[in-house]
Amino acid sequence: MTLKPLSDRVVVKMVEAEETTKSGIILTASAKEKPQIAEVVAVGPGEIGDDGKLKPMNVKVGDKVIASKYSGTEVKIDGTDYTILKQGDILAIVE
pTM for the whole thing? Predict the structure, then answer.
Protein backbone atom coordinates (compact mmCIF):
# COMPACT_ATOMS: atom_id res chain seq x y z
CA MET A 1 0.00 0.00 0.00
CA THR A 2 1.30 3.48 -0.82
CA LEU A 3 0.33 6.85 0.59
CA LYS A 4 -0.39 9.75 -1.76
CA PRO A 5 -0.85 12.96 0.26
CA LEU A 6 -3.32 15.59 -0.87
CA SER A 7 -2.87 19.35 -1.12
CA ASP A 8 0.14 20.67 0.83
CA ARG A 9 0.54 17.59 3.00
CA VAL A 10 3.75 15.61 3.40
CA VAL A 11 4.25 12.01 4.55
CA VAL A 12 7.37 11.55 6.68
CA LYS A 13 9.03 8.68 8.48
CA MET A 14 10.60 9.71 11.77
CA VAL A 15 14.29 8.94 12.22
CA GLU A 16 14.95 6.89 15.36
CA ALA A 17 16.42 8.86 18.24
CA GLU A 18 19.78 7.89 19.70
CA GLU A 19 19.45 5.36 22.50
CA THR A 20 22.73 6.37 24.15
CA THR A 21 24.06 9.82 24.97
CA LYS A 22 27.47 11.06 23.78
CA SER A 23 28.87 10.16 27.19
CA GLY A 24 27.62 6.57 26.84
CA ILE A 25 24.55 6.73 29.08
CA ILE A 26 21.80 4.43 27.82
CA LEU A 27 18.37 6.07 27.79
CA THR A 28 15.23 4.19 28.74
CA ALA A 29 12.19 4.44 26.49
CA SER A 30 10.50 6.88 28.91
CA ALA A 31 13.52 9.23 28.92
CA LYS A 32 13.72 9.57 25.15
CA GLU A 33 12.06 12.52 23.47
CA LYS A 34 9.94 12.16 20.39
CA PRO A 35 12.25 12.56 17.38
CA GLN A 36 11.92 15.71 15.32
CA ILE A 37 14.11 14.75 12.35
CA ALA A 38 12.26 12.86 9.65
CA GLU A 39 12.73 11.66 6.10
CA VAL A 40 10.18 12.76 3.49
CA VAL A 41 8.49 9.71 1.94
CA ALA A 42 5.77 11.36 -0.18
CA VAL A 43 4.77 14.91 -1.10
CA GLY A 44 1.40 16.28 -2.18
CA PRO A 45 0.98 18.41 -5.31
CA GLY A 46 0.81 21.71 -3.40
CA GLU A 47 -1.84 24.10 -2.20
CA ILE A 48 -4.05 26.17 -4.47
CA GLY A 49 -3.74 29.82 -3.52
CA ASP A 50 -6.42 32.51 -3.45
CA ASP A 51 -5.46 33.41 -7.03
CA GLY A 52 -6.29 29.87 -8.19
CA LYS A 53 -2.67 28.99 -8.95
CA LEU A 54 -0.87 25.97 -7.53
CA LYS A 55 1.82 26.89 -4.99
CA PRO A 56 4.80 24.53 -5.41
CA MET A 57 6.09 22.44 -2.52
CA ASN A 58 9.42 23.35 -0.89
CA VAL A 59 10.35 19.77 0.05
CA LYS A 60 10.87 16.67 -2.06
CA VAL A 61 11.00 12.93 -1.44
CA GLY A 62 14.23 11.95 0.31
CA ASP A 63 14.76 15.29 2.11
CA LYS A 64 15.63 15.13 5.80
CA VAL A 65 13.51 17.67 7.65
CA ILE A 66 12.87 18.97 11.14
CA ALA A 67 9.18 18.97 12.02
CA SER A 68 7.35 20.67 14.87
CA LYS A 69 7.01 18.48 17.95
CA TYR A 70 3.71 16.67 18.20
CA SER A 71 2.47 17.91 14.83
CA GLY A 72 0.67 15.88 12.22
CA THR A 73 -1.27 12.65 12.31
CA GLU A 74 0.48 9.35 12.99
CA VAL A 75 -0.53 6.35 10.90
CA LYS A 76 0.73 2.77 10.66
CA ILE A 77 0.82 1.20 7.19
CA ASP A 78 2.15 -2.33 6.63
CA GLY A 79 3.84 -2.27 10.05
CA THR A 80 5.69 1.03 9.46
CA ASP A 81 4.90 4.24 11.36
CA TYR A 82 4.44 7.42 9.30
CA THR A 83 3.36 10.95 10.12
CA ILE A 84 1.21 13.02 7.76
CA LEU A 85 1.65 16.74 8.28
CA LYS A 86 1.17 20.04 6.51
CA GLN A 87 4.17 21.61 4.85
CA GLY A 88 3.81 24.52 7.31
CA ASP A 89 4.68 22.16 10.18
CA ILE A 90 8.12 21.57 8.65
CA LEU A 91 10.58 23.98 10.22
CA ALA A 92 13.75 23.28 8.21
CA ILE A 93 15.46 21.03 5.69
CA VAL A 94 18.59 19.33 7.06
CA GLU A 95 21.47 19.55 4.57
Answer: 0.78
